[in-house]
Amino acid sequence: MITLKEVQKAQLEWGNAIVEIGKLKNLPFDEIREKTSDIIRKLYYFEKDHIMFKPTRAREHPFRGDFEGALSYFIGHNDSFDEDDGFALQPWVAVRFDNFQIDIENDRAFAMGEYFFTTESGEEKKVEYTFGYVKLPTGELKIDLHHSSVPFAPTLAQ
């Protein structure tokens, strides 16, 4: 059974990983790719056939189902996803979660709310998210559903 503390720990680890990837920004790209690959393989459940990954800043390919699609969003440099500029290489200095709700059902959990990314100048960027977590037999929690989007902003056309 997943506990609330395990979900909160997984969120903290995800936020710390985003900050850590940003610290790689000035390394050679092969090293960035290798280290980021290790980081996201630890966080996401790529061991099954697919994941559901819908990143915030993706218009041409808004839905990604595999490792390469997710990796591209975090670090860019992928001709199949040329819109990706490397979201995690911003760099961000902090990430904090404000959970609206966390639902736990045995070895599955879903969390929804807002997370806030802090820039080097101290500005926070708000993003809405839904994450699904699965608990593996090893006890690890991994993300198999990642949906994030910018908050709704009405336009004059509406």
Kindly provide the radius of gyration, computed on alpha-carbon positions and rounded to a whole number of angstroms: 15 Å
Order of helices and strands: HHEHEEEE
Strand order of the largest sheet: 1-5-4-3-2
Number of strands: 5
Distance between the termini: 45 Å
Kindly identify the CATH topology.
Answer: Nuclear Transport Factor 2, Chain: A
Uncertain residue ranges: none
Strand content: 25-35%
Helix content: 25-40%
- Count of discrete alpha- or pi-helical segments spanning 4 or more residues: 3
Q: Give the number of domains.
A: 1
The helix-and-strand class reads: alpha+beta
CATH class categorisation: Alpha Beta
- What do the pLDDT scores average to? 94
Major beta-sheet overview: 5 strands, mixed
Oligomer: single chain
What report would you give on this structure?
It is a single chain. The protein has 158 residues and is an alpha+beta fold. The chain has one domain (4-149): Nuclear Transport Factor 2, Chain: A, CATH 3.10.450. Helix content is 27%, strand content 30%. The protein has a five-stranded mixed sheet with strand order 1-5-4-3-2, covered by helices on one side. Helix 1 (4-22) runs antiparallel to helix 2 (29-43) and helix 2 (29-43) crosses helix 3. The chain is globular and about 40 Å long. The chain starts with a helix and ends in a 9-residue tail after the last strand.
